[in-house]
Amino acid sequence: MIRRYPNELRGHLWPGILFLGALIVATASSNLFLQDAVIVILLWAAIASAWNISGGFAGQLSLGHAAFFGLGAYTSTLMNVHLGLSPWVGMLCGAVLAAVVGVFIGLASTRLRGPYFAMATIAFAAALQVVAGRWYSLTGGNEGIPIPFKVGFENFMFSSKFSWNIIALVYVIAVYSIAVWIEHSRFGFQLAGMRENESAAEALGIHTRWLKIAAISLSAFMTALGGTFYVQYAGFLDPGYVLSFSLSIKFALMCIIGGMATPFGPILGALLVTVLEMYLRAHLGGGSSGLYLIVYGVLLILVVRLMPEGLIIGVPKLWQRMRASPVA
Amino acid sequence: MTELLPQLIASSILLGGIYGLMSMGLTLIFGVMRIVNFAHGEFLMLAMYLAVGLAACGIDPYMGLLIAIPVSLIFGFAVYKCVVSPILDQPHVVQIFTTLGLSIVLQNAALLMWGANFRQLQLPYGDRVILVFGAAITLPQVIAFAAAGMFAAMLFLAIRFTYLGKAIRATAEDRKAATLMGIDTNRICLLTFCVGTACVAVSGVLMAPLYATYPTIGANLALTAFVVVVLGGMGSIGGALLGGMIVGVLDVAGGYAVGTSWKEVLYFIVFITVLLIRPTGLFGIRGAEEFDEAR
After folding, report:
1. Are A119 and B275 a contacting pair at CB < 8 A?
2. Which residue segment(s) compose the domain that B43 sits in?
3. Model ipTM?
4. Which residue range(s) make up the domain with A23?
5. In chain B, which end has fewer C-beta atoms inside a 10 angstrom radius, N or C?
6. Which residues pair with A152 in a beta bridge?
7. Distance (Å, rounded) from C-alpha B284 to C-alpha A91?
8. Residue of A112, A128, A277, A301 for testing the chain B interface, max B β-carbons within 10 Å
9. Which residues pair with A236 in a beta bridge?
10. In a domain, B42, yes or no
11. A293 lies in a domain?
12. What is the pLDDT of residues B184-241, one digit of tens each?
């Protein structure tokens, strides 16, 4: 049945179904929990996809993407609270700021590989978290900042879940489209070359330095947009969360579980991880707050070990192998 | 300032020694296996909980080292067999996220078992103060520093002068070549991992009387350990000690100059600067930060 569609569209079947499903929930459902779940999944899916541009396509394993997320969140909130500017303006400024910071991180990445880059990004996000928590006069310190609740499109504040849902959907489709474009563009092919063998790529005349900077910067830009969305939706800016190491891990984890360097992988990963988290929290939750994170950690170890390409490639492969040689 | 100087110097040196020991396991494991153990801090945290638990049973934590070392060797063995050995020749993504997964599991297991409350190990002689040249230092600090120095010296001598130490150095230099020379590199890796874990356990036990114990203490201290190791040079034991001293000085002097709340920013800045200017650190294995492209 799938074969009737033109070849280019076939790859978008599953993401299309998911986006359509989200739209249907947004318009038809009156279940607030379900609507909230969909918004959160779309948000994390978009950010995991944004991480994928740097971590997956460019192979620069950042463990500090919360820094970009936090930059987006803080820029829009501070401009809103101190200057009275619309969060939409702040969102754009935050994203540009994150992209500029991304250029510097990208410059650093040309000297640091693998775990060194990961450590540097951890330290960068940790430093930002300390600054945000201590620079009381500007950021309000560790207590965080409540977002003024003034409903209206220009204030990026809505009373209905429907509007949040549509914005999240636009956001995730935008990041997904970028990922699809990267996969089929010259830029993407060059990134793939660099990821597989940097020296060989350089020998072929690819400017790996600029590629890395471009990828990290673009990834930072898209991540920062999500930061603004998150604080506006949550209604509160908490430096202990938006700049935390665990958030950075979460972005990377969703992408890795789903499948790196594929457009749909991070979206699938975000869906699975978020649903799993909600389920485990509901069933194991309450007093034993750490339990679902243990499952998380074990899952991460297992996926990385058994299906390093992520579920999106690993599961079909496994399926094919099982069909080819039925066990007993 | 002048009357504070002896105090500042004494505090930096003592703190530096402990930071050095804490980072030694990390640097040893990296040097031999080229794996950055992101679960390092959690090993430390578990050792601190062990010391707290032993103290609750009435065992002096310093005597408890006799228990902590064998326990950590067994723990290191188990972790190596189950988690580390399969990822030895895997790409960075796998190595980073496997150890990261391990750290998430251990941290939350501790949270589940012991809760998020701070526990402070109280020693009967814990608040005894010694005055040296006008600097007041507590007994646990002195013991921790002396023991750190002793263990570091033992490790250094063992690696420098024994046959096994030679094999470890050869494996660190080039695993493939070492294998070709008839060294069982798998066993060397296992041994190094266990010894590294034991180092962490020793420093954890020594630190338990000095710091409050809680599930995320490891994650906080691990960042310091990364700073120390990168500063001193990944894979260098002497470098870890020197890096520890530098971070100790930064910590104390920075705390004095810019206030305790901002000193962390100071050493993150130093960390990133060192990474950028000289990723091999002061005494690192040259080229180690480049890694093999072929892997």
Report:
1. yes
2. 20-215
3. 0.85
4. 2-245
5. N
6. A157
7. 42
8. A301
9. A146
10. yes
11. no
12. 989 999 999 999 999 999 999 988 888 888 888 888 888 888 888 888 887 788 888 8
